[in-house]
Design brief:
The complex is a heterotrimer.
Chain A (H helix, E strand, L loop, with lengths): L9 H18 L7 H12 L2 H19 L19 H4 L19 H37 L1 H16 L2 H12 L3 H28 L2 H8 L4 H37 L11 H11 L6 H28 L6
Helix pairs in contact in A: 1-9, 2-12, 3-5, 3-12, 5-6, 5-8, 5-10, 5-11, 5-12, 6-8, 7-8, 8-10, 9-10, 10-11, 10-12, 11-12
Chain B lengths: L1 H27 L14 H10 L6 H15 L13 H36 L4 H14 L3 H15 L13 H31 L2 H8 L4 H13 L1 H25 L4 H11 L2 H29 L6
Helix pairs in contact in B: 1-12, 4-5, 4-7, 4-10, 4-11, 4-12, 5-7, 6-7, 6-10, 7-9, 7-10, 8-9, 10-11, 10-12, 11-12
Chain C lengths: L13 E12 L2 E13 L4 E5 L6 H9 L6 E9 L2 E2 L5 H10 L1 E4 L3 H4 L6 H10 L6 H14 L5 H4 L9 H13 L5 E5 L7 H18 L2 E6 L2 H7 L2 E6 L2 E7 H6 L4 H9 L38 H5 L5 E2 L3 E3 L2 H5 L1
Parallel strand pairs in C: 3-8, 3-9, 6-7, 7-8
Antiparallel strand pairs in C: 1-2, 1-4, 4-5, 9-10, 10-12, 11-12
Helix pairs in contact in C: 4-5, 5-7, 7-8
The chains are: A mainly alpha, B mainly alpha, C alpha/beta.
Chain lengths: 321, 307, 329
Amino acid sequence: MSGLTPESGTEQRHISTMIAAHLQPESLPEPEPGRSLWQDARRRIRQNPVAMASFSILVLVGIFALFGPIFSNWSSEDINWNVLGNVETAGRPALDSGHYFGTDQLGRDLFVRTAHGVRVSMMVGIIGALIAIVVGTLYGTIAGYVGGRTDNIMMRTVDVIMSIPYMFLLIILLVMFGQSILLLFVGIGLVSWLDMARIVRGQTLSIKNREFVESAVVIGVPPAFIILRHILPNLVGVVIVYATLLIPNMIIFESFISFLGLGIQEPNTSLGVLISEGASQMQYGVLWQLGFPLFFFILIQFGFFFLGDGIRDALDPKDRH
Amino acid sequence: MLHFILKRTAIAIPTILALIILSFTLMHYAPGSPFAGERPLPPEILANLEAKYGLDRPFPEQMARYVWNIITEFDFGPSYSYKDRTVNEIIAQGFPVTLAYGSLAFLVSIMVGIALGITAAIHRSTWLDSLAVGMTVGAQVLPNFIMAPILVLVFTLWLGWLPGGGWQGGQWPYLVMPVIALSTSFMASIARITRSSMIETLNSDFILTARSKGLPFHEVVIRHAVKPSMLPVISYLGPTFVGLITGSVVIDIYFSTGGIGQHFVNAAINRDYPLIMGVTILTGILTVMFNLIVDILYVWIDPRIRY
Amino acid sequence: MRSTPRIGTEEVLLSIRDLRVTFGTPEGQVMAVDGTSLDIHPGEVLAVVGESGSGKSQTALAVMGLLARNGTSEGSILWEGREILGLPEYQLARLRSEEIAMIFQNPMTCLNPYLRISTQMIEGMTMNRKVTRAQARSACIDMLETVQIADAANRIDMYPHEFSGGMLQRIMIAMSLLRRPRLLIADEPTTALDVTVQMQIVQMLQHIRQKYGTAIMLITHDLGLVASISDRISVMYSGQIMESGLAENVFSSPRHPYTQALLDAVPRIDRNDRKLRGITGEPPGPASRTSGCPFHLRCAFRMTSCVEHRPDMLGSREHAHACHLSNET
């Protein structure tokens, strides 16, 4: 298909240009003509109370994570020596002690540490989703657009990687090369893009066969330009939806590794680390150590879940009922 | 059909081989020696140890021998950290435990998930549907490492009904929490998938035809809607399987059940390479075989796919 | 070739009176059928003609009790004089199983792709356990032969995707006739098929009617199709009946401007001018029903009364129509 050149005949080229011109509004959602699609979506999502509530909650959680520590006299590493050894009573959440969320078993302020953990977890989630967007979209678009043998090999590779219990491989890597945030990101990057690649490939296949792409091919637009100009803009919707739903998954992923003690290391912390620490202490009557991190974990999970759902509904209204 | 099975098997075998070779290579070039302890060993003892485990041989020979032993005898060699025990013995001890609660969790996820999904779909937009959707959304944000402490908190610390850990040969009080903790999030995903695919199926033309024939609604659902709406669920069984295996690590550690996951993490921390490889390759083979079964099931259900 | 319809008799199989079908949507109530009345007599073919969105399919689904879950119907539907609107589901199911059958527009999607034809045909018969599987199976094969499926004994065990669209529609017809229904509702049975196959299906319906005496409610937008087999015609527009009567009356002397325009739009080989005539404008969607005559926006003979009042249906059973224009003269 891409072998066709503009020399295929001037008359045909003329007709195709006309076809292309006719179909252009569909292929260019970003500048002037496509405005309605995105405005429509924005209007619909504003009218969706669940999605808007989720969005507000996420924003509030974000503000808490970034600016919360300002309102505390403690830093995430300070140890309150007065509390140490007597955490069950002296380390309780209280306003007058300045430990709004109480302290952890080492007498460190949980309010600040929770804010810190939320920040790290959110960052992991967002970076994981970004890796998935870049790698997965590129991989999926190429596989879907080139098609044939290349597609077959590329997607088989994805299948093979998926059939490996990746968590085991990641744990091996972490043990072999030592635990570091960098390696954690490498590990997350290794697995997060797989589903995205599959979804994007499927979408690309269906877009590829639409008339506006065919007419672009016929008039000899180079494949790279077609991918950039015609395919990618049409993928934006599905990529955004999936990325929103991927962030909470990545947070779970990181928390899982941290729960096993293989992820984020001291003095850094994450929600997974805090939950793990809280869970190991809960029989000693210090439930707040589990409660606060868990609360934020669940809040973030629900927030992204319903926001993603809302975005999907907004972009694909016919799917709503 | 037979042709398809053969073809899929032909793809599965190189996948397993690639997995074995990949993990062996990774292990071989991994930094850090399994024998590096608190203080360095004298060189002659180290040489003896290496000779004993065949580590003085050239890399291709080591790998060939390793692969050969797996293929012919399913033998993963001796363990480094547990002296005088082979990897096979350790796996034979831990695997039945993992298999017991893992397969139970698998069954619970599928059966409860499908039942919940179908109930929600056929009572769509009623309180029953809202309840089911609410439950699944709630359960989906509760992965096993969150569920486990919550369950222990409620059923062990507060109510005192169930033991907080241990195995005791798999008596049911020791099984309940591992199975629930492991299955909750997968059950939720399966319920969601079932619900949406059932709703889609119930909107298809052939359901209208079936109803126009005068079949009662429950018969329409059983005869016409269940089979097609199971296809997406079947595709999700592969990821569920992998997820359950991965989750067993958390279960084994949190509930001290003594399954294969516990050995895996211990092996990883002790740099017991043969054991790590053994567990990874075993689960890899199981996953590949499971996916093969799922693929065959898929083709068997959908008469339109013919290879 | 038309068999004599028993129009003079009082016997009415199905009688629809002032049927209104509404759908609740997020944008509000949408009225798909707006006061439709129809009669079908035993053994006759009634063609319900109209553009898409005119409410003909929803009328049929309301009769079957198979409206989408957000749909409600009001008015009256009498089956042999008995009210069936609002019957409990199990009684409706029984009615569908024994008295009224229905076939649909797209045979490719109307058969379950995951089940063999035999399974799908037999299940409707063995349901009340009056026949054995073997008896049902041989009855199904007979019926498939009636609709001219060659090698039916073997092909009955094939899957839907192994047949062509025309064959599937014949299978659908065979399946619908297994319980010898008194009425067969055919909802656009030829629309999804190749032109060459369309006539086959119509002839098949004609054949069925002669062989079993089944009354047929043929829903279509294709006037050409209707001309050859229907005894009576009802023309629907925007959820209402515009004109109805014996087929020859409606065809030879259409009274409603809409029917006239519709007939005019059919290209005819015996007419000299080769120009295609359409009806200007768009039919109003179900969301925008008007208070007056629904056709007034597109009507060439519009008067002020058309905008204000809905015209009554006037005339006899042989020929009636709803239009202010001729009602006044």
